[in-house]
Structure formats: C-alpha cells, structure tokens
Automatic annotation (TrEMBL):
Domain of life: Bacteria
Entry protein name: Nuclear transport factor 2 family protein
Amino acid sequence: MTEKSTHNAKLADRLLDWNRRNLRHDSVLSSDLIAECFAPQFTVFANGRRYAAEHGNYQEFLESFKSTISTIDYRVDHTVATEESIVLALRAKVLRTYNCIDDFDAMLLLQFDSDDKVTLWHEVYFKTSTHPFNQ
C-alpha cells in the first residue's frame, strides 16, 4: 500500500471508533463532534438513496438513528485502500436498548478531503439476523 492508502485505512479505523463511541443512545452529539470526522458538506449514499449532508442535518439523522442503540461494533473482513478512497467489507453488530441484537453485512466506500474529513459515505447493508439478548 502507498502512504496515502495506508493513511486512508487509518482514517477509516478512526471513523469506526468514532461510531462506536458516539452512535449510542446515551451519547450527546453536537456539530463540533460531527466535524471531528465529517467535512462541512458531504454525500451519503445508503442502500440506493442519496443525501446531501452537512453537520446540522446529519446530526438530526444520527439522533434518530442512535436512539435505540446501546452499542455498535464492527468486524472488518476485507479492506481495499487506494489513494482516493477505501472500501470496507464489514459486519456490524448492534445491541439495541430493548435487548435485541441486529447483525448486518455491509460494504462501505469512504472518501476523505485534504483535512482528513469524510466527503463520501457510500454504504450498502443487509440485515442478516435479529435475535434476543439476555443480559
């Protein structure tokens, strides 16, 4: 891998860690927190839908998205990093506040700007299972 593709891989790892910390029902989001990883203007493609995003409307989306999440974790199975982007084949495990686990398979394409902020989040995901969780 080149220095830039290695750097993109590190940025993707940082983003997944950010998600683990912040995409929880008990986290407090702000525009400043979102700006840690996301450019002021970016594009989200999720399962065939395209959204023009900025910190404010993405915060609104994330507040709803995280409202039932106790924890979210990822297992990256494959990574393809280039100078321009990185693709992750991953599995996500979401523990819900109502003691249920949702498992997802996903392909995530990310692009970053010169400030190391996400400019493109392009994801295709599929729920593979849902099962109860007894604490």
